[in-house]
Each structure stands twice: as structure tokens, then as C-alpha cells.
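Side project, low priority. Logging it here so it doesn't get lost.
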Amino acid sequence: MKADIRREMLSKRESHHKEKGHLHCIAIMENLLRLPRFVSAECVLLYSSKGSEVHTADLIKSCLSLGKKVALPVTKREERALELYWVKSSDELKAGAFSILEPPATPERRVQPSDVDFAVVPGVSFDLRGHRLGYGMGYYDSLLPKIKGTKAGLAYRVQVVERLPEEPHDVAVDIVVTEEKIIECKRWLFRIVVLASGRGSDFQSIIDATKPGGILHNKVEVAALITDNPEAGAISRAKENGIPIHTLPCPSREELDAGIKKILDQISPDLVVLAGYMKVIRDGAFLSSYEGRMINIHPSLLPKYPGAHAQRDAFEAGEKVSGFTIHFVDATLDGGPIIHQEKVDISGCKSADEAAAKILVREHVGLPLVIGMFADGKIKPNKAKGAAF
């Protein structure tokens, strides 16, 4: 998906640059030079532009004339890393890796990333949260976490989109400067997509938790409901709360998995929650793309009683204690790494339905709590190795 976006954005950038590129670059530079955080910065990291990137040659000269310490990156291809060095004059820049102009890489000019007050970075595209799409080689991905100062992207307006797909290692910029405006990037709500096949009571518990007074209010957004059942009760719950609905009654499991993945790729959620979704996801590409970012809630203490009739199976086996499990999703039936379990006493229950109802009450408390822990960063979405609750 990123490759497709990259190709589209490079084409748009090229066209936009050819139209009035020089004037756009001047406007972007002027917007940056007026920015208070840039004005006060003593040590700035810039980049040497190439092709249709926002041009920085005049920006480098302006910063040097203002008496700022200007650092530029030197590409170390073997290490797949960037090292930073002082530049004293534009005249000393020479073509280096990828034909990008670089300063002399002498030891006395070496700059540590922690010394940078303000970093200006290139990008193929940026979104409103500051997430950046680069060229896919990872050089800035390894550099940006080491920079504690303000991070800014330079971009034409056509390069800025609402939301880009992201990876766990991505570091967002704080500001995006275009020819039209300065965008202060803000972290949006933690976005989830729910998959459900039935009545949607667990889905409702998530919705309720996002409302004023709920533990997920102003923290989590339910971006969509995806269901394989056009008669699912979860659909009416989504409609009542203005949540987008995607119904996929696909004739084959392969088509269903592919259809769900396509929708998820378009939405790019932070977490996928299976809440009463009655299918096992088998598609390897789907599972790989969302490994560690897809969870399921199951009404038993796994590994006991997997499958669709867990409460009945536990009751008929004479269990005195059952409960529910929240786990990461893999290709097995209710078999992914466990995140959280809660025991529920069902010893006094007279029927399997009574046991199921008692467990469900606790599910409605536990599922929003776990989602909240993901949103707070207490459970890392990229590590499908289980987690303590």
C-alpha cells in the first residue's frame, strides 16, 4: 500500500513542482524562516534537495547568513544510516550518495543528533498527524528518534493527506510547512475497527465507553464496523451511533479475508478488534500486515473451550469457574498469544445461558479496559507476544 501511495505522491509532486515550483519553494522558505521555533533555534538540521523536492539551496544560504549552525546529513550506504556534519558554505558541498550534495565528513565537523534544536526533513508525503512517507530506505527512520528538538517537514500542499498508513517505528514530525500554511501536527484519537458477526453486545460496550463519562472518551474513535453478516445486530448499533458500516457477505473465505484487508488498509486503524466475529482469518498476508494489531475476545479461559460454543461447553463439563480471554489473533482457532484473562464464578448458574450472561457482563468491562491500555501505550500493538494486564 505504501508503494502505491509513494508512486502517486511522487507523480503529484513532480507535476506541482513543474507548475510553479520556484515560487512555491520561496513561499515555503519564508513561512519556515518566520516560525518562532525556527527563529530561536541555534543548531538546525537541513537537507540538500534533489529533483522535485522542496528546494533548500537558498534556505541553507539564509541560515548561514543568519549565523545559525547548519548541519547536513551524510549518507552511509553500507550502514544504512545518516551522519550529521557542520556546513560552513554552500560552495563546499559535493555530490555524495544518490548524487545528493553533502558537506565534508571530517571528524571535527561531526554533529550529534542530540545537538539539533530544529530538524527539517524531506518526505514524499506527510499527513495531518505528522506521519511521514519517505523513499522506503529507512535512513531518516533511524535518525529521527535520536533528535529531541522540533521536527518539521517541508512539503507542497499536494503532498499533505489526511492520514497515511504507519509502522510502529515511525516518528512523526511536529510541523509541516507548505506554501500555503504551517500545519501544527496533533496526535489524533486512537482509531479502532471492530469486526462482528452477531448481535454486537461487546461492540456496544466499546461504543458506550467512548461516550462522555466512558473510559475511552476523548481517547478512542471507532472508525468502522466490518461484518460478514447483513443481518447482524451490530449493524443497527453502528447506525445509531454514526459509525461507518462495511458489510461483506462474501461467498468464500478467501474473498472475505481479502475484502476485509482492503478496507482496513484504506482506514489504517491503530487496532482491529474482533468482538463476536465468527470466522477464523486464514489469509497469510492479512495476518502478517496486522500482526500484533488485531485482538479477539473469547468467552472462556483459553486454551480451554475454543470455538463457537465455549460457554455451553464449560457449563456442560461442570466447570465451577470460567471467564473470558482477550488475545492476539493468529491463524489458529482462538489460539493467539493471550493478553488478558478474567475468571468468572459460574458455580451457581442453572443453565449455560445463565453462565454466558454472567461472563458477558464482565466482558463488557474488560474489553474497553484492554483497548484503553492499547490507546495509552501500556500494551504495544507491535509485539504479539502476550502482555500483562
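Brief comment: The domain at 2-184 is CATH 3.40.50.10420 (Rossmann fold).
Revisit when time allows.
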